[in-house]
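User: Sequence in, structure out. Go.
Assistant: Echoing your sequence, followed by the structure tokens.
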Amino acid sequence: MDVHFQPPGGQKVYSGYYPLMPETVASHFDGAGRPNGWSYKQSFFALYLMMMGIMSLVFFGLPRLLRHFSPSLINIPNRKYWLTPERKQEALAMLDEEMGWFGIATMVLMASTIQLAIDANVTGGGSLRSGAMWMLFGGFAAFTGIWLVKLYRRFRIPS
């Protein structure tokens, strides 16, 4: 749906959901999907954009900054082996890649959670589809477990 609106700041913004949301939105839900916290829709969307920006910086910016950190400040498996001068660049490239994958998974979880909250507010029912949310959490937990195993295997000391 192509919808354009002009928020209080004056600049034109594209959005498909913003105009459809009530002024006060359910923004927090209990484990059963019932709303138990509310906010203004401007705050809801501003927080969402801010969190996605912060997550982008953490998962995609921080690994690049680590190139300038002392090895004593970088915590990876088998740090003494991987952060020697001859292996440091390879290790940081691997860490950059792994953090990117974890960042993508985290941002998919966040975007999906926000979409469920938007759906709960736009449909008028006000309840979050808790089954879908628990599936998202389960998928993220499984991804995290697999990611950790892969991370530790990738940073093991070669035989």
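User: And one key feature?
Assistant: The helical segments are 41-65, 79-82, 88-122, 130-154.
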